[in-house]
Write a structure and sequence with these properties.
Strand content: 15-25%
Radius of gyration: 35 Å
Number of strands: 27
Distance between the termini: 81 Å
Bound molecules: adenosine-5'-triphosphate
Shape: elongated
C-alpha cells in the first residue's frame, strides 16, 4: 500500500490515515498493531559470519611465524612436528574464536540493558513504555534530552529543536513546527517531522508515530546499524604493537642462533632448522591476546553486575587511572527523597512534620506547638505548589508512590498536608500552558484559568532567581513591595541547614493561550519559600572516604544553593566545610584563575551545565584524569570532554547516555567508585597475566639457547613447548582473568596512564623468573642425562619440571608485590585451583598414555623423578616471595627517605 507523504499532510489527516486520535490508541488496538507491524526495533546488525571471524584468528604475525615453522618442519619431513604445530595453530584460533564470541555476547547483553523508554498516551493516559512496543498510530510525548523513538508526525510543539546529525549530517539543531511542508522537501527541511534516532536538544512536543522499526528513515540506512563496540582499546593496541616488536626480535634472535649453531657449533642445517623452529615457538606468547580480551570482557561484566554499564570499552582502562571524580549532588550523593520541612511566607515561619511522600503530618507555626489553621497566604502557596507541578502521587497497596520528580513530589505532599486535593484543584484551575524546568534558568512556570474567567501564572524555582523576578510579596490577600533583604536572609537560614530551597510566586495575567519566557521575567508576587531535606546516601559517605584513600579527589558540582551544598558536603566529607565556588564566581574568572581555584575547591554550587565543561577542562589542564557525571542534554559536552563521562541511568536523558562512556543503572555515586575499583583490578589482572605468561616464554627460549650454546640436545622439543604454552595459557593464565581485587587496590594512588605496559619492574620480574625456569629445567635435564636416562625420559622430566614451575609460580603471580603466604592464595580464586587440577590431569595423560607419548615423544617417568620435580618446583615460590620481600623493603626505605 502506498504510504501517505506524512510531512505534506495536515495533523488531522495524518491522525485519520492511522485511525488514531489525540487521546491515543486503546491498549487493545496497540496490541493488535504490534502483531501487524512487528516490534519497533531495527534488524540486528549483520555480524561477520562465523567463518570470517574464525579465519581472522589466523591473521596475526605471531601465528604467521608458527605457520612458517610448520612449513619448515614439513619440508624436513618431520610430519609429527608439522601436525602438532598446525594443530596448535588451529586450537589457538578456536580458543580465540570462542573467547571473542563470549566477550562480544557479554557486550551485546549489556547494550540490551540500555533499552529506550518512551512516554506514550494510550486510553487517554500518559504512561512510560519500552520503545520497542510502539506502533504506528501511537501518540508520543517528547522533551529535551529524549531520543526520538520512532518516525513521528508532530502534532504539537513548544520551541522544539532537534539534532538530526545522525540522518542529515547537519550539526546545528533544526527548529520544528507542526505545519505541513512541501512534498518534495529534503529530509532536513521537513520541519513537522521528528525522525527515529535523532535527539531533542530543546523544548517539548507531542507526535504521532507514523513508522516504526525498519520502516523508519534510519532503518533504511543499513550501514548505520553497525554501532557495536569493537573490542579494541588503547591497551590492546599497545599490546599488538608490542607483539610486532616481539616478532621482529624473535626473528632476529632465531636467525643469529641458526647461524651460530651452523657455523660455530657445526650442527647440521636440519638440526638447526628444528632448533630455530623450537626457539621461535618457545618465544611466542600464543595465548596472551586472547587472555587480555577475556580479562577485559570479564571486567565489563563485573562492572555491569555492580550497576555500571560500560558503553565504550577503553573506559575500563581509563577508570583505573581516574584522579578526580566530579559528581552531581541530587540523587547521586543524596537519596533524592525530598521532604518539605519548612515553609516561610511573609506572614510566618512554619514547620512541617512527617517523612516521605505520605501526606501525613502537621503544619505548625515555629515555636507554637498546636496545628495551625491554614491562612490565605499559606493556602495560595500550597495551591501554586500543587499546580505548578508535573509530579503525581498515587496510593498503591497502601503505599504512596511518586510518579515524577522528587522535588515536585515533596511539594505535592506538602500541599496535601495543608488540605489541598489534586483532582479538585486540577478541575478548578486547568493548565493552559507551561514552561518546563531547565537547569539553565532554574524555574518552572504554568499558566491557568479558573471558572470565573481569571488567568494567572504560577512560577516556582531557585529563590535568588525568583526574588529578582518579583516586585511584591503576598501578605494575607494583600500585596506589599518585596523586602529582598528579608528573603535573602531566609534563603541562607534554610540553606545552612542543608535544605534545598524553592521559591514560589504568582502573577495575574491577561487572557492568554501561551506563556512566553518574557511573561515570567517581571511583575511577580512572591508567595513564600519551602525548604526540603534530601538526606545524603549512607553509602556515599563511605565511598567518598574510599576515594580519598585511593588518592582520588571528589568534587561536588550542583545546581543547588551554595550553603546547601556546603552543608551536605560537610556530612559527606567533601570540601573543607567552607570553601565553595558558585557559577557566577566561575563566570567572573578567566581560565588561569579557574585552573588555580579548581585545585583547592571541592564544592561548586549554582552551576549550570556550561560550567561543567570549563571545570573539566581546567582540571584536565592540571594533569588530572577526570570522571564527570551528568544527566541533561546540556551536560553532553562536559561528558564528552571528561576522560570518563558518566550518565545517570534513571534520571539521565538519552543524549547524556549516548555521549557517556559509562551509565550508572542506579544513579549512585557508590557505583562509580565500584567501577573505578574494578577498572584497577582489570589492569592488575592483565599485568598479572603478562607477568605470568612472558617468563614461560622467556624460560623456554633461554633453555633452548643454552642447549645450543653448550652444544647439547634440546631439553624440550618444539611440539612439547607448544604443548606447555597452550595448555598453561588456557588453564593457569586464564585463572588470572578471574582474580578478585587485591585488598589494597583502593589504598594506592591511581595508575599513571602514561606508564608503559612493561615497566622496568615488570621486565626485571620476567627476567628473574625466566632464569629460574632455565636453571631448573635445563639443570634437571642435564642431571637425568648424566644419570643415564634416555633422551625421551629426560625431556619428559624437563617438560613436567617446566609445568610444575608454572603451577607454583601461579600462586606468586596472584599478587604482584604483596606476599602470597596467606590462606586466600589457595582459596581466594577457585578458578586457580580448578585450573591446577585440570592441568595435573593433562600432564598425567601426556606422560603416561601411549598416543600422547607417540605424538609428543614423552615417556613414563618414575616417582623419584616426580619427587625431584616437585621439590625443585616449589623453590620458585620461595624465590619469588624472597624477591618480593626485598622489593617491599626497598620501597618502604625509599618512602621513608622521601618522608
Ligand atoms: P545536581 O544534581 O546538579 O546536584 P540539582 O538537582 O541540585 O542538581 P538542578 O536540578 O539544576 O540542581 O536544580 C537547581 C535549582 O533549581 C534547585 O536548587 C531548585 O531551587 C530549583 N529546582 C529544582 N527542581 C525544580 C523544579 N522541578 N521546578 C522548579 N525549580 C526547581
Amino acid at each position: 500500500m502506498q504510504q501517505p507523504v506524512w510531512h505534506a499532510i495536515s495533523v488531522e489527516s495524518a491522525l485519520e490515515q492511522l485511525q488514531s486520535q489525540l487521546s491515543g490508541l486503546s491498549q487493545q488496538q496497540a496490541k493488535q498493531r504490534l502483531l501487524d507491524y512487528g516490534p519497533n526495533q531495527l534488524p540486528a546488525t549483520r555480524k561477520k559470519s562465523a567463518l570470517t571471524r574464525f579465519a581472522q584468528q589466523f591473521h596475526n604475525l605471531l601465528i604467521y611465524i608458527l605457520i612458517a615453522a610448520a612449513i619448515i618442519t614439513a619440508l624436513l619431513g618431520q610430519w609429527i612436528d608439522f601436525s602438532v604445530i598446525l594443530g596448535v595453530v588451529f586450537i589457538n584460533a578456536l580458543i580465540g574464536y570462542i573467547q571473542e564470541g563470549k566477550a562480544e555476547r557479554a557486550l551485546d547483553a549489556i547494550s540490551n540493558m540500555l533499552s529506550q523508554q518512551a512516554s506514550v498516551i494510550r486510553d487517554n493516559k500518559a504512561m512510560p513504555l519500552n520503545a520497542v512496543e510502539l506502533v504506528p498510530g501511537d501518540i508520543v510525548q517528547l522533551q529535551s534530552g529524549d531520543k526520538v523513538p520512532a518516525d513521528l508526525r508532530l502534532i504539537d510543539s513548544h520551541e522544539l529543536r532537534i539534532d538530526e546529525a545522525i540522518l542529515t549530517g547537519e550539526s546545528l539543531s533544526s527548529q520544528k513546527s507542526i505545519s505541513p511542508c512541501q512534498e518534495q522537501s529534503a529530509l532536513g527541511d521537513r520541519n513537522c517531522m521528528a525522525y527515529s534516532g535523532t535527539l531533542i536538544t530543546f523544548g517539548t512536543a507531542t507526535g504521532l508515530v507514523v513508522s516504526t522499526g525498519r520502516h523508519t528513515e534510519i532503518g533504511q540506512i543499513s550501514d548505520m546499524l553497525g554501532n557495536v563496540d569493537v573490542l579494541e582499546t588503547p591497551l590492546l593496541k599497545r599490546i599488538s604493537k608490542f607483539a610486532r616488536w616481539l616478532t621482529l626480535a624473535i626473528m632476529i634472535l632465531t636467525s643469529i642462533t641458526f647461524l651460530y649453531g651452523f657455523f660455530v657449533q657445526g650442527y647440521t642445517a636440519t638440526d638447526m632448522f628444528l632448533a630455530a623452529v623450537g626457539l621461535a615457538v618457545a618465544a611466542i606468547p600464543e595465548g596472551l591476546p586472547a587472555i587480555i580480551t577475556i580479562t577485559l570482557a570479564i571486567g565489563v561484566q563485573a562492572m555491569a553486575n555492580r550497576k555500571a554499564i560500560i558503553r565504550k570499552l577503553p573506559a575500563v582502562e581509563t577508570l583505573g587511572s581516574v584522579t578526580t571524580i566530579c559528581s552531581d549532588k541530587t540523587g547521586t550523593l543524596t537519596c533524592n527523597e525530598m521532604t518539605v520541612k519548612n515553609i516561610i511566607t511573609a506572614a510566618g515561619n512554619y514547620e512541617v512534620s512527617g517523612v516521605g511522600y505520605a501526606p501525613l503530618g502537621n503544619i505548625t507555626l515555629i515555636n507554637h506547638a498546636e496545628k495551625i489553621t491554614v491562612n490565605s497566604c499559606l493556602e495560595e502557596l500550597s495551591r501554586a505548589a500543587m499546580l505548578c507541578n508535573d509530579a503525581r502521587l498515587y496510593q498503591e497497596n497502601g503505599q504512596w508512590v511518586l510518579h515524577g520528580d522528587p522535588t515536585e513530589g515533596a511539594l505535592v505532599t506538602m500541599a496535601m498536608k495543608t488540605g489541598q486535593d489534586a483532582d479538585v484543584l486540577y478541575g478548578q484551575c486547568p493548565r493552559i500552558d507551561a514552561i518546563p524546568f531547565e537547569s539553565e534558568h532554574r524555574f518552572m512556570a504554568t499558566l491557568h484559568h479558573d471558572h470565573k474567567g481569571q488567568y494567572f501564572m504560577y512560577v516556582k524555582g531557585a529563590p535568588e532567581r525568583l526574588i529578582d523576578m518579583c516586585v511584591t510579596q503576598k501578605l494575607s490577600g494583600d500585596e506589599t513591595p518585596i523586602d529582598k533583604q528579608f528573603w535573602h536572609d531566609k534563603v541562607n537560614e534554610l540553606a545552612e541547614k542543608g535544605q534545598r530551597v524553592l521559591a514560589i510566586a504568582s502573577k495575574l495575567m491577561e487572557k492568554s493561550q501561551d506563556l512566553s519566557f518574557s511573561d515570567t521575567q517581571q511583575g511577580l508576587s512572591l508567595l513564600g519559600f519551602v525548604g526540603m531535606i534530601d538526606p545524603p546516601r549512607e553509602e556515599a559517605i563511605t565511598s567518598v572516604k574510599a576515594c580519598h584513600n585511593a588518592g582520588i579527589n571528589v568534587k561536588m558540582i550542583t545546581g543547588d544553593h551554595a550553603a546547601t551544598a556546603v552543608a551536605i558536603g560537610r556530612i559527606l566529607g567533601i570540601g573543607d566545610g567552607k570553601a565553595v565556588l558558585t557559577g557566577v564566581d566561575i563566570d567572573n574568572m578567566d581560565n588561569d584563575a579557574l585552573i588555580q581555584s579548581v585545585q583547592d575547591i571541592d564544592i561548586f554550587a549554582r552551576t549550570s551545565p556550561i560550567h561543567k565543561l570549563r571545570l573539566v577542562t581546567a582540571l584536565q589542564s592540571t594533569g588530572q584524569i577526570v570522571s564527570m557525571t551528568g544527566d541533561g542534554v546540556n551536560d553532553a559536552p562536559a561528558l564528552k570532554r571528561a576522560d570518563v563521562g558518566v550518565a545517570m541511568g534513571m534520571k539521565g536523558t538519552s543524549v547524556a547516555k549516548e555521549t557517556a562512556e559509562m551509565v550508572l543503572v542506579d544513579d549512585n555515586f557508590k557505583s562509580i567508585v565500584n567501577a573505578v575499583e574494578q577498572g584497577r583490578t582489570v589492569y592488575d589482572n592483565i599485568k598479572k597475566s603478562i607477568l605470568f605468561i612472558l617468563p614461560t616464554n622467556g624460560g623456554e627460549a633461554l633453555t633452548i639457547l643454552a642447549a645450543i650454546i653448550l652444544g647439547r640436545l634440546l631439553p624440550i622439543t618444539p611440539v612439547q613447548i607448544l604443548w606447555v604454552n597452550m595448555i598453561t595459557a588456557v588453564t593457569l593464565a586464564l585463572a588470572l582473568a578471574f582474580e578478585p581485587a587485591e585488598k589494597n587496590v583502593m589504598k594506592r594512588p591511581p595508575r599513571n596512564p602514561a606508564e608503559p605496559l612493561l615497566t622496568p619492574f615488570l621486565i626485571w620480574r620476567i627476567i628473574f623468573v625466566s632464569v629460574i625456569l632455565l636453571f631448573g629445567t635445563f639443570g634437571l635435564f642435564i642431571f637425568e642425562r648424566e644419570s643415564g636416562s634416555s633422551i625421551e625420559y629426560s625431556r619428559t622430566v624437563a617438560l613436567n619440571m617446566l609445568v610444575t614451575f608454572e603451577i607454583f609460580y601461579l600462586f606468586n603471580a596472584r599478587y604482584i608485590i604483596e606476599h602470597a603466604f596467606k590462606r586466600e592464595v589457595l582459596f581466594g580464586n577457585r578458578y586457580a585451583v580448578y585450573a591446577v587440577g585440570i592441568l595435573i590431569v593433562f600432564q598425567l595423560i601426556l606422560t603416561y598414555t601411549a598416543p600422547a607419548q607417540l605424538l609428543f615423544g614423552t615417556e613414563a617417568i618414575n616417582l623419584e623423578s616426580w619427587a625431584r620435580i616437585i621439590i625443585i618446583g616449589c623453590s620458585i615460590f620461595f624465590l619469588v616471595e624472597a624477591e618480593k620481600f626485598v622489593l617491599r623493603y626497598k620501597r618502604r626505605k625509599s618512602e621513608t627517605v622521601v618522608d
